[in-house]
Write a structure and sequence with these properties.
The chain is an alpha+beta fold. The protein is built from 17 helices and seven strands. The N and C termini lie far apart (113 Å).
């Protein structure tokens, strides 16, 4: 039981802090009582000196605070009381509320007041469900399971890097942060733009799921200037003949569909034999498999028909390879004598160049290739002669 003699008072001005000494068997405990924000708080010490130091510190702080409050003018006291009344329903101290207000005004920089900024935020984000980037990436990849293996592999690879860099809420990511991250990746601008396109897909998916507000996303605000000043390289008829003579049946469909129909690699990988109509003489590129998401029909040239009939099947995928361009570049070209240097996108570039030389009509060529007439006219006009073009489409199986 605590006796009156066990209580010591530490005084600072008009403030008194008490130290209670309690005997607990062989040892003593010194308790310092402190009233903070209307609540009684007890601190216990086994060292008397530390207990007294703490009591003096508390008394000094309380005295200074009381002195400041007592020295307020009538107007200041009225303002202080009103401020306390304004935040009484919120779990925040007055100084914290004022600091937050000052920081918010500094961010706004005079372009709007805090109320306007708050209304705008609620309008934009009030109905948005907050989600972390890694969670959304998992949802997107799960939704795209029906897509081709190459598409899913690319999605996993690029978004895997993005979610490692941005693991927080997607709504907090700015266009500047995305642009800085893309720049830090290095490499060619074309590669950076490919990353940007995948990130845009992620942000548009987030809008569909209600994780971002409607409108232009931060990812879409990022612009990458794609510098592609490299010369368009094409194969000569002689080089193409050597490649086809040494190609196996695994890579042959890729070579002839690219060279004599101008079909993109990604579209060839997805193509099935049922989409090649030998009776009608055309190839159907379905909307779901086209890069531009538009269905198109390609008229088959006689030499293409001859090549395809050598290896045609009733059904299944036309190309058994998921990366036929790698096989063509590393294996087929190396077998040629002399060696044929592989040209990036050379098959499609070659078809467009030779086809334009014969037709002299960018609209018809663009319809077959799935590009714009302007692009065809600007890049493939007058690259080859009509005589070379006739040689190209006269390459038949031996």
């Amino acid at each position: 039981m605590t006796r009156k003699s066990d209580v010591e008072e530490v005084k600072e001005g008009s403030v008194i802090v008490k130290i209670y000494t309690v005997n607990r068997g062989q040892r003593k405990v010194f308790s310092v009582a402190n009233y903070y924000e209307g609540k009684r708080k007890i601190q216990q010490f086994t060292d008397y000196k530390k207990a007294k130091e703490e009591a003096r510190k508390i008394a000094r702080q309380l005295n200074e605070g009381q002195h400041k409050i007592l020295s307020l003018s009538d107007d200041d006291a009225w303002t202080y009381t009103r401020a306390l009344d304004a935040i009484k329903n919120y779990p925040v101290r007055l100084d914290a509320a004022v600091n937050e207000w000052a920081a918010a005004n500094k961010i706004l920089g005079g372009i709007a007041n805090i109320q306007e900024a708050a209304r705008f935020y609620v309008k934009r984000h009030g109905k948005v469900t907050q989600r972390m980037v890694p969670e959304i990436v998992v949802e997107l990849i799960r939704q795209r399971q029906h897509k081709s293996e190459q598409y899913r592999r690319d999605l996993n690879f690029r978004l895997g890097k993005f979610k490692d860099a941005f693991s927080g809420y997607i709504s907090n990511i700015s266009s500047k942060e995305i642009a800085d991250w893309l720049h830090a990746l290095g490499g060619h601008s074309r590669s950076q733009d490919n990353y940007r396109r995948v990130i845009v897909t992620l942000f548009r998916f987030a809008i569909e799921r209600g994780y971002l507000p409607e409108g232009k996303t931060e990812a879409e605000k990022v612009k990458i200037s794609v510098n592609d000043d490299s010369e368009i390289e094409i194969f000569t008829p002689e080089e193409m003949s050597r490649l086809l003579d040494r190609a196996g049946e695994d890579v042959l469909p890729y070579l002839v569909l690219g060279a004599f129909a101008g079909i993109r690699t990604a579209e060839i990988i997805r193509m099935e034999w049922t989409e090649i109509n030998f009776a009608g003489g055309y190839i159907e590129i379905k909307k779901s498999k086209a890069k531009t998401k538009g269905r198109r029909l390609i008229q088959m040239q006689p030499n293409l028909v001859a090549w395809l009939k050598k290896i045609a099947k009733q059904d299944g995928l036309v190309s058994p390879l998921t990366r036929p361009e790698k096989t063509a570049a590393e294996v087929v070209g190396a077998k040629c004598d002399p060696i044929v240097k592989w040209k990036k996108n050379g098959l499609r570039h070659s078809f467009c160049s030779y086809r334009y030389a014969i037709l002299q009509n960018e609209h018809q060529v663009s319809a077959e290739m799935g590009n714009s007439p302007q692009m065809v006219f600007a890049n493939y006009r007058e690259l080859v002669t009509k005589e070379d073009a006739q040689k190209w489409f006269n390459i038949f199986p031996k």
